[in-house]
Each structure stands twice: as C-alpha cells, then as structure tokens.
C-alpha cells in the first residue's frame, strides 16, 4: 500500500471529508522499492501479521473513538 492508499482507507473508515493532499512521490517510491526487495526475501523479517491490515485499521479507529468518547465524558464530569 502507498501512503495515499492508507490515507484513503482511513478517511473512509472515519467518515472523513477532508481533502487528501498528495506530496512528491519520489521519496515514497524509493522507500517502497527498497521495502519490496527486502520483504521479497523469504524469511527476511521472520514475521507475519496476526491481523489483516484492514481489520487492524478498523480496530485502531474503534479504539481511538472509544478513547475520545472516554475523554469527553471525563471532561464533562470535571466541569460539573
């Protein structure tokens, strides 16, 4: 995935309306090529994800929604 693809996925998950601004892709392309080469070497990382990417992003978004709600409730209690 590219950074722009991550941004679009997260924007969709949170129901965002902000515009995604694209920066120069040169640096990102260089990093992606290097990462693909290293990851392509079987066993290089000796790691496999336990959660699919999209599922992990959904869990992360839900976690932060709960944290924001908890903070809002705490702020209401301290003002009273």
Automatic annotation (TrEMBL):
GO terms for cellular component: cytoplasm. GO terms for molecular function: NAD+ binding; UDP-glucuronate decarboxylase activity. Keywords: Decarboxylase, Lyase, NAD. InterPro entries: NAD(P)-bd_dom_sf, UXS-like. Signal peptide: none annotated. GO terms for biological process: D-xylose metabolic process. Its cofactor is NAD(+). It comes from the Eukaryota. Gene3D superfamilies: NAD(P)-binding Rossmann-like Domain. SUPFAM superfamilies: NAD(P)-binding Rossmann-fold domains (SSF51735). The keyword Transport does not apply. This is Udp glucuronic acid decarboxylase 1 like.
